[in-house]
Amino acid sequence: MSLIIIGTVAFDAIETPFGKTDKIVGGAATFASLAASYFYDKTKIVAVVGDDFPKKDIEKLQEFGVDTEGLQIKVGEKSFFWSGKYHNDMNSRDTLITELNVLEQFDPIIPESYQDCEYLMLGNLTPQVQSTVIKRLKNRPKLIVLDTMNFWMDIMMDDLKETISMVDVLTINDSEARQLSGEYSLVKAAKKILEMGPKYLIIKKGEHGALLFHEDKIFSAPALPLADVFDPTGAGDTFAGGFIGYLAKVGTINFNNMKNALIFGSALASFCVEKFGTERLLELNEEMIEDRIQQFVNLSLFDIKS
Amino acid sequence: MSLIIIGTVAFDAIETPFGKTDKIVGGAATFASLAASYFYDKTKIVAVVGDDFPKKDIEKLQEFGVDTEGLQIKVGEKSFFWSGKYHNDMNSRDTLITELNVLEQFDPIIPESYQDCEYLMLGNLTPQVQSTVIKRLKNRPKLIVLDTMNFWMDIMMDDLKETISMVDVLTINDSEARQLSGEYSLVKAAKKILEMGPKYLIIKKGEHGALLFHEDKIFSAPALPLADVFDPTGAGDTFAGGFIGYLAKVGTINFNNMKNALIFGSALASFCVEKFGTERLLELNEEMIEDRIQQFVNLSLFDIKS
């Protein structure tokens, strides 16, 4: 039994009001698998890099227990590279450079040892690549989580909707939920999106937390108010990785466990933004995570006796 | 012992994507006192209207147990009038008309029977009028809550800061907290604002809920996701009225009761926006409020066993 995460393993160059990096390691699968590794020890990735990707960074993932057999290394090709600059509010950013490189022809190969997949996280990629992974698994996983973005809604909505129809959980942000549904109210948007296939919808609202919709139930997870957001890159992927990693650990899918998974995902994401790139995710331990969860408890819980 | 609410009693004309009203009854003190009346039966208002204000609408407040002895009626003058138009997202609005009328020379007279004031809600008005009310009370109330807005920060920041230094709780929205403190991070903003005098700071984030700051503690109250927001006018005043009305009812000021007060205020505000003006606030009952509170419990509560 395992958790498979598909997504990018890549280079980022990031500029924020706090500083600037050269090319550092990033990518959705990197952030998500590191986050998941804190909860679940059978996390495996499917991704592609060029031979410019440092061996030591692949070994770093392996040190965290991440199985990289499904990470293809394309000789003579270059890894995906994204460069962006965040504005002062840290909520908006400009993309400076996107070099697809190896991603242009990415054919996600599933190693035979991955066929025990029970939990599948489809990180943001073309909808066809995402659906291909589902089709190449001999048994449908117990839980499929899909992350996507407005870019695919703009250029290939039909393909995206087909992929959405195949999954159990969809994670998007509030403006994407509005774009996908054509509804401004998130309650109405969620109702329409849940009719497209997924049984659960997570709407990410950044510094305002996240909403979980299932049937007629709603859960609101707060975001931890932070004094400093150093670099938001990868926060959404870290959230998704922590979310599915926690669910893989507890092994039972229900609304209560989903709620907790949202809190664990939010807690991991709150660490992620404290340093550049994956830096913070590499130095956590169980006690730090428990302390952070306690902060979420203190932040959210109230006790009304009527 | 009583709760005094000072603020406007006025006319509004509102346009939203759902419809348009003629002049209807509005004003901060109207919304706040109606909300408070559901929790506390010794709610008194200090306000001013012209003789154009319908007697039946004053009687309506009285029916809700609101003491209107401090409501001055200026013969030959006109009531405050505001007209606004909400944009499609309902989060932003344009002011079309502001006629100060009786507000221009508002001298808040405190009836002798109001001198038992224990809880004081200073609704949005000029900072001088707000501080005058504090000075005219012979005994300092047990709890003073101040609501204000960016308008006063733009034109009389020094007066506003003096009034802020005299109160226990300040309620403002997120952009106002940033303007008042000069800090983008709400955590840093709250730290600075709590050094200005108030022991508690509530940052209202509209559809994203509200944050309560006290010493080094933070509580995040969710907003109830709604399918339809019909008219947001008065939601902030309703929140404040429900908040202080609940505290007046329980009678003990501590962080836990403040948290609950935020939830009760948010619940009342979630009703307010369901119809135009005060319409919805006039038709609530205890059972409806309890049901709504239960929705907030379901929305927020999770149970993590580590």
From TrEMBL, chains A, B:
Q: Which InterPro entries is this protein grouped with? A: Carboh/pur_kinase_PfkB_CS, PfkB_dom, Ribokinase-like
Q: Which UniProt keywords apply?
A: Kinase, Transferase
Against Pfam families, the record matches this protein to: PfkB
Q: Which residues form a coiled coil?
A: none
> One MF term in GO for this entry?
kinase activity
> Start and end of every Carbohydrate kinase PfkB domain?
20-279
SUPFAM superfamilies per record? Ribokinase-like
Under which name does UniProt file this protein?
PfkB family carbohydrate kinase
